[in-house]
Amino acid sequence: MALIKASAYAKINLFLEVLGKRPDGFHDIKTVMRRTTLCDEVTVETVEDGRGEITLTVQGNDNIPTDGENLVYRAAEKYLSRAGVRDSVRIRLEKNIPVGAGLGGGSADAAATLRALERIYGALDSTEILDIAASLGSDVPFCIFGWTAVCEGRGEIITPITDKRKMHLVIAKKERSVSTPLAFSRIDEAKELGKIPTAPQDECYSALLKYLANEGELPTTLYNSFEFSLGELEEDILDLKKKMQDFGALTALMSGSGPSVVGIFPDEKSAALCADALLKSGVFAYYSN
Ligand code: C5P
What we know:
binds cytidine-5'-monophosphate, 6-stranded mixed beta sheet, globular
């Protein structure tokens, strides 16, 4: 019997450009992802009983599936099969990251499960782990890597970048959610209607990389293609951004396909005050550095 606990960290996108639709139905993207301190906890326990059964229990959110629909379950299934292991695995997932939020919570949980199983069995090499990760979802390889990176392709091609910044962030989300496939299809429609700036966002991207490397100021506007096709989310996003700006945010951007908004603050005090006020108004809010 072995027992391992692993933290599953939410990601944010500080830059996200959807480049174009591919023949396989996915979209090529170019994004800068960064790990936050907001996390779920995954506990993996293995039993040498030759049964190969997987059981998943979830705490902190009653709406999460505990079967093969859950990425954690599928991650364990794929790891055991690839590693040729017949042990049973019991997994406990403590959810803190909001679901359907653009924060990669499910992907982080799957990555933490793979990391925990690899710590127990040590049966696969890093290429095999990343291979399983990519087969589970576009954001899972980043969550395996875990620190700031440029992610390309459909998100699975990871290039680490220098990140020397201590950031003061508020991550906030209202109740309404949006499904990722729907958000991508809205981008296709918005592009056809010419609603998305088509010029490459090179300047914004380079300025962000310089800022992260501590070689330049924070760009005043950050870019996320999804912000140009928000549909019914528009009001929520604008409201959260305005509240963050009222508390002194230097800038605020939607993360991933939304609807979480990330505000970047000059110091911990102003960020904590903002997070507090948002929480009091009934909105999910979290201070992260
Ligand atoms: O990879 P993941 O399972 O997270 O993707 C969910 C859905 O989001 C895909 O089925 C696809 O519709 C869309 N997607 C996309 N391009 C990406 C990532 C996701 O079109 N780069």
